[in-house]
Design goal:
Strand content: 15-25%
CATH class of the largest domain: Alpha Beta
Bound molecules: adenosine-5'-triphosphate, magnesium ion
Helix content: 40-55%
Largest sheet: 8 strands, mixed
CATH architecture of the largest domain: 3-Layer(aba) Sandwich
CATH topology of the largest domain: Rossmann fold
Number of helices: 13
Shape: globular
Number of domains: 2
Radius of gyration: 24 Å
Order of helices and strands: EHEHEEHHHEHHEHEHEHHEEEEEHEEH
Length: 406
């Protein structure tokens, strides 16, 4: 089973290309689901058929659905949140603070993606194609499982015993403590779902991101940042799709329209050439700007024709370069030397900034930060240096004599 995520800036053609790809994969004999997690659902408009919250077959081998985000939030989280608020307030936590503690950033999108993961795991489909919300949102969304799990883990287990004890003392009858246990269990289940979502998103054999862009400088710059950010999050980008390339007029063509197209195309080619040289290991496919709006399955299939045949469209599920690796490069005991390698295909715009925070390393690149929990051996080491090479970022470590023997 493969999960293909279509991400990119607003309006570049994510929905159109996700629907077209899904249609073409279905035609090639793969049982395919195309699902939208964008609250501004336009999958139905692109396919020109009604699309509901549950997967329904819209063509032979092709099912479609749009995640009902409101229902997910109202159903699962609101109840839990209310419960948690009451419990925290009961424990003497200030109302305002209780409210803050129960707001999880971007939970809606996250629940939508967890719903996609649930559908994917049903094992009915060979391919699940996901039409994501525009870049900024879906980026935050893709980083979320990790962020939220970390948040939950940090906030609640530490407070769990403390709050429980406090509640038992206050209420005397143990009912508040029981409610707290229920809320804590529900949070635990949410954290488990997020962990399973993260496992799915970071499995390069399963999940690949297609970044859609239009050949414009501003969009290309954002695409480079997105590649860095996704790589830092351990999510594999398996290709770029440059959409809306204008047709090049014949050399003999004269007149204003031909001149305009020639100039436009020359600019688009220049932007793509620069992008290709910045991201040498990512395949780029181009899709022409069609005169007629591609709406309805036949038109979408026509557009997807330029994305290759079924197998190529699916991408190869090769394991890829491990995004994070630790090597013992020499010495033994206190003289050991270790290298932590973080594969980042792109560090051109800003050099990464590194900071050691306890057992974690914070890597900031192109405005995105990722906290990497160090493998246990490196927690007893000190950082001795860092460098960037063609393959990514290398951080060197040596044992800390004060900690090593523990
Ligand atoms: N190659 C193309 N040729 C002609 N029209 C296109 C092409 N690709 C997309 N379009 C049209 O451009 C518009 C925007 O496309 P689409 O809705 O797929 O973008 P999107 O990235 O999903 O947008 P949003 O960020 O708002 O979800 C649509 O009207 C679509 O039909
Ligand atoms: Mg869209």
């Amino acid at each position: 089973m493969r999960v293909l995520l279509f991400a990119g800036k607003g309006g570049v053609g994510k929905t159109t290309l996700a629907a077209g790809t899904a249609g073409a994969l279905a035609v090639s004999g793969r049982k395919t689901l195309v699902v939208s997690t964008d609250p501004a659902h336009s999958l139905a408009d692109a396919l020109d058929v009604a699309v509901g919250a549950d997967p329904t077959e819209v063509d032979a081998g092709l099912s479609a659905c749009q995640v009902d985000i409101r229902a997910l939030v109202d159903g699962a989280w609101e109840q839990l949140r209310g419960h948690l608020g009451t419990v925290l307030a009961g424990a003497g936590v200030d109302d305002v603070l209780a409210e803050e503690l129960t707001v999880l950033p971007g939970l809606e999108e996250l629940l939508a993606l967890a719903e996609v993961a649930r559908m994917a795991r049903r094992g009915i489909w060979d391919v699940v194609v996901v039409d994501c919300a525009p870049t900024a949102d879906s980026l935050r969304l893709l980083a979320l499982p990790e962020a939220v799990s970390t948040y939950l883990e940090r906030l609640f287990p530490t407070h769990r015993r403390l709050v429980r004890g406090l509640l038992a003392g206050l209420a005397g009858d143990g009912s508040s403590a029981q409610r707290w246990d229920e809320a804590a269990d529900a949070i635990g289940r949410l954290a488990e779902r997020l962990e399973s979502l993260r496992a799915l998103l970071t499995d390069p054999q399963v999940t690949g991101v297609r970044l859609v862009l239009t050949p414009e400088r501003v969009v290309a710059a954002e695409t480079r940042r997105t590649v860095t950010a996704l790589t830092l999050q351990g999510i594999r980008v398996d290709g770029l799709i440059a959409n809306r390339l204008v047709p090049a007029p014949a050399v003999s063509a004269r007149g204003t329209a031909a001149g305009w197209l020639r100039t436009r195309r020359r600019e688009q080619d220049a932007v793509l050439a620069a992008l290709c040289s910045d991201l040498p290991d990512l395949p780029v496919t181009t899709v022409e700007h069609h005169a007629a709006e591609p709406v309805g399955l036949p038109a979408l299939l026509g557009l997807a024709g330029s994305l290759g045949e079924g197998a190529a469209m699916l991408g190869d599920a090769r394991p890829g370069v491990p995004l994070l690796a630790v090597e013992h490069v020499g010495g033994s005991g206190l003289d050991s030397e270790y290298v932590l390698r973080l594969a980042v295909s792109l560090l051109d715009e800003t050099d990464p900034e590194l900071a050691r925070v306890g057992d974690e390393i914070a890597v900031t690149s192109a405005g995105h930060r990722r906290l990497i929990t160090l493998p246990s051996v490196l927690r007893r080491c000190v950082v001795t240096g860092a460098e960037v090479d063609g393959a990514g970022l290398l951080v060197r470590f040596r044992p800390d004599p004060a900690l090593w023997m523990r």
